[in-house]
Amino acid sequence: MKNISIIFLLFSLIVHDTHAQIHWPEGKKAAVILTYDDGLKSQLQIVIPQLEKHNFRGTFFLYGQVIKEEDIPEWRKASQRGHELGNHSMFHPCLSQTTGQTTKPCHSLECYSVKDMLIEIGMMNNFLYAIDGKKEYAYAYPCSQCVAGGEDYSKPLLASGLSRFARG
Q: Please, which residues have CB within 8 angstroms of residue 90's CB and are 6 or more apart in sequence?
């Protein structure tokens, strides 16, 4: 029994030392990241005011095709008030089995190459820059899918410098 106790104690010390300690700014204990996809009007009308009411900020992943001209000033103001705008592509391509899309032009991931996807992400970065003037954007994979034309584009995306962070 004594040997089991010693082994347990040693194991506890090893496990404890392997956990990295994160030092949060201002002595905070943790962080919560609230993200919202698609740049919906309801996010401008409901989500952002509710977050701000409680002194929270969020990350909003916009995709260009659905952003209306009249909403651009509101997204700009949200960014100026501390909300992050992120890249969700220009056309939100997903695998066609997810969307059932059969129309042309083809905005299904099967129709894209990795190069096509990177070009589209770059275009959206330019659009976001025109809204908030920032030069770096996080990226959210549309439909949580990171395969274009059968090829994973997650590593080429990060290697390209078009995004500093990507999530599904």
A: 63, 64, 65, 120, 123, 124, 127
- For 71-120, the pLDDT digits (tens) are 999 999 999 999 999 999 999 999 887 656 555 568 889 999 999 999 99
pTM: 0.81
Q: Which of 111, 84, 83, 85 is nearest to 96 (CA)?
A: 111
What sections of the chain are H helices per DSSP? 2-18, 41-42, 48-53, 72-80, 96-99, 114-132, 154-160
Contact 40, 74 (CB under 8 A): no
Instruction: Determine the Cα–Cα distance for residues 88 and 69; give it in Å rounded to an integer.
Output: 17
Q: Which single residue is written with the structure tokens 């990177």?
A: 118
39 is written with which tokens? 């740049």
- Rounded distance, CA 49 to CA 66, Å? 21
Task: Delineate the domains of the chain, giving CATH numbers in brackets.
Answer: 23-167 (3.20.20.370)
